[in-house]
Amino acid sequence: MTEPNDARVGLYIDFDNIVISRYQQLHGRNAFQRDGIRNFDKTSRDADPEVAARLAAATVDFNAIIDFAASFGTLVVNRAYADWSVPVNASYQRQLMSRAVDLTQLFTTTTRGTKNGADIRLAVDVVEDLFRLPDLTHVIIIAGDSDYIALAQKSKRLGRFVVGIGVAGSTSTSLAAACDEFEDYDSLPGIEKVTANADADTARADKPKGGRRAAEPVEVEAEPAPPASAARKLTTIPMFSHTDDSPYDDSEPAEDIDPQSLATELLVRALQIGHAKGDADEWLNTGTVKNQMRRMDPSFNEKPLGYRSFTDFLSSRSDLAELAEDGSQRLIRLRPEAQTRD
Questions:
Q1: pLDDT of 182-207, one tens digit each?
Q2: CATH topology match: 8-230 vs 259-338
Q3: pLDDT: is 122 or 327 the higher one?
Q4: Most-buried pick from 32, 61, 133, 186 (CB within 10 A)?
Q5: With respect to CATH, is domain 259-338 assigned 3.50.50.60?
């Protein structure tokens, strides 16, 4: 869909999804449930300081998310879905309200929590808004749940530009493919790259319930630039209700594939497609090539791969493609020896 200058944006946040995913990204799979974060109150006198420190390290910067969403146009819908009576959720209320986010309350109606409550309510609201607000041009979904695939597809069929934002390691690859554009939370401007101590996670997983054992402190350190190994690896982790009665499903094992190789293959395919539409030796506009790559894989982004710009990314593949300049335009074409590359 062509993006108009007067774009009007609807932002829909599956709050539990992004908060839980971020915590588990830093502290290990199922850590949110193991640490009892749902009912953890850091203001309580009995609050475990170690858990409080881990929770603070995994704080989600919703200002960065909202700022990124606003870059697409005017925010006319801005909603977050959660049970706001839960302490960990309530701690975000002031930050969200200061950005005019509509806090949609999801009440716990069963002993199993609000399982899939946010998914259903968010999807219903988006579909309603698509028909109620015909001038809505963009739908931005903050979640990585595969349940939103049908919603993304429906929104695209109705002529909206769909953007997804999720946490690496907790995002469905199918959801990313269903969007027009998909971004990792870590790649958003203003998000500081952090890592967690894996040994502390292992010790915490072995800690018996009901007992207190001193664990190694979690070390959180900033990284000046994302290395190539930090590129997104999207795997599916269904985001179910975070209660003792409904534990998280294990994620599918991630394939050991070099993200740099995947990006190279994507570039070659995009160039082959561009050449197939015209002369095999024709020079292609680099902007057109990047758009083609994003259409083929909406999650593609050169920055998590370690490159400051798309031009730097292309220059690193000079053995496969050659670059040229025509005035203000940057051009590229696949080298003859790479034309038949699979």
A1: 999 998 888 877 765 544 444 444 44
A2: no
A3: 122
A4: 32
A5: no
* Helices 149-157 & 117-132 angle (0-180, nearest 10): 0
pLDDT at residue 221 tops 70: no
Question: Domain residue spans in the chain?
Answer: 8-230, 259-338
Of 180, 181, 119, 171, the residue nearest 147 (C-alpha): 119
* pTM of the entire predicted model: 0.70
CATH class label, 8-230: alpha beta
- The pLDDT, as a whole number, for residue 225 is 44
Task: Give the H or E element holding residue 333.
Answer: strand 329-334
Give Cβ neighbours of residue 325 (< 8 Å, ≥ 6 apart): 331
- Phi, psi dihedrals of residue 204, rounded to the nearest 5°: -70, -35
Cα–Cα distance between 6 and 136 in angstroms, integer? 10
pLDDT of residue 243: 36
Stated length of the chain: 342
CB crowding 277-287: b at 16 or more within 10 Å, else e: eeeeeebbebe
List pLDDT tens digits, range 245-283.
433 333 444 456 788 999 999 999 889 888 877 766 689
Q: Which residues contact 97 (CB under 8 A, 6 or more apart)?
A: 103
Task: Give dist(CA 64, CA 185) in Å, integer.
Answer: 9
Q: Do 313 and 304 meet the contact criterion of CB atoms below 8 Å apart?
A: no
For 26, the enclosing helix (H) or strand (E) is helix 15-27
DSSP summary character for residue 5? T
Q: Give the pLDDT score at 341.
A: 53
